[in-house]
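May I ask you to review the protein record following this short note?
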Amino acid sequence: MSDDLVLRAQAGDGDAFSALTAPRLARLYAAARLILRDDDLAADAVQDALLQVWRDLRGLRQADRFDAWLRRVLIRSCYRAAGRHRSRRVAEIKVRWAEDAAVPDAEREVALRDQLERGFARLSPQQRAVLVLRHYLGLSTIECAEALGIPPGTVQSRLDRARDAMRAAIEADDRAPALVGEVAR
């Protein structure tokens, strides 16, 4: 079914292109949002990617490779959007509790999610892209390599570096309140 839609869209059928891309929009937007950390930039990146796909669709030689190609175009669109928009708006709220304090599970879960969010926000778009492809979209290393246009070994090293950077950012956040308290004394 999808291959037929690709072939019809390649022939210029706009309805086929809409039918082909509509079910993928939410996932494309979610991936772009995770990479770019901004709703408007993500929407622009998805729109730019879809326009490029529509323009270049006739050049796609294997209809069954449409999804991989679409992801690759989206990643490049996200990189361009990030390059155009260098400023970062980050609001940080520190959530700390004593180890022995009784913190409800829901609050602890929100605090942990916030901590991960802050760590993720400190990563570069390239680091976020490889993490989103691997862990959010659930792609294999080879599929990530195809989407990013790099060798599988490079994907693995970027994943390792992105995880290390995220770990370091989270650990830095954990140390920050102690340092602030020491300076104030």
